[in-house]
Amino acid sequence: MLLAAGLGTRLSPLTDLLPKPAVPVLGRPLAHYAIDRLLAAGVTELAANAHHLPHEVERVVRARVPDATLSIEPELLGTGGGIRRALTLLAEHDGRAIDRDEVFVVSNADVLFGVDLRAAIEAHRAAHAYATMVVRPDARADALGPIHVDAGGRVRRILRVPAIDAPLEAMMFTGVSVLSGAAVLDLPTSGCFVRQGYRRWLDRGEIIAGHVDGAPFRDLGTPREYLAAHLDLLSGAVPWPGIVSTESAIDATAIVEGAVIHHAFVGARARVAPGVHLERVVVWPDTVVRESASDVILFASGRVEAK
Length: 307
Fold this sequence. Notes:
Layout: E1 2-3, H1 14-17, E2 24-25, E3 28-29, H2 30-40, E4 47-50, H3 54-64, E5 69-72, H4 78-93, E6 103-108, E7 111-113, H5 117-126, E8 131-136, H6 141-144, E9 147-149, E10 155-158, E11 169-180, H7 181-185, H8 193-204, E12 208-212, E13 217-219, H9 223-235, E14 249-250, E15 260-266, E16 271-272, E17 277-283, E18 288-289, E19 293-299, E20 302-305
Parallel strand pairs: 1-6, 4-5, 8-12, 14-15, 15-17, 16-18, 17-19
Antiparallel strand pairs: 2-3, 6-11, 7-13, 8-11, 9-10, 9-11, 19-20
Helix pairs in contact: 4-8
């Protein structure tokens, strides 16, 4: 399942035009990067939830998986409620109920993360886990909201609760989970996945595995992070299948004759005037650029600074 119902307010005004999962990254909707990882792991059925500009979410998801199940939320159900509703609809689409022993993968639709999902699923099964959090090392974990994992790969503390006198390592939750069907059925109909799901299961003594994956991770939550993700993909700092390292990339349908382009991406049908110098810039499709710029995202109706 793709979690795709967020408002993306930190990325405004870009997300006033498109929901965050549909925002283009190197010319492709951001959600397609997460879908790629799911398909590579052997996922054959996909559900996604949507709230903000839901038909745009549906468009980009179905462009990649035509028979995907869409759960449109007129009112946000929270991550926990959103997962439960979408996966219930997915099962109903097949004319069945959720089996408590099924395995489901849940992923945020709005981050770049080269997670090895097959390894996460194998770890989940090996641990006989009720649910598995895919976590990553991050020096800021203690400050931002740690998930504490013991040496055996089991989650023991979530957001500093409960107090445990044992050697634990602080990790960050990636937003990727492997869930048993029983866990899905145990989620709230509305509310937070972590606080009303994982937190409750841990207190109850369920086995919550913590699978560590150190693959590059990028949150595209702000214009600055959005630009940085483009530059990291272009440079190879974030390797991705099918993307060849290069300084800049220009869509074949863009017109940039006479312009100077450094560390930038120019989207489909964009036009950059002769003599214009672009550096550390993302140009959205169908945008006309008449002035030089740096550290900015340019789109047809405006621009947003990304310094």
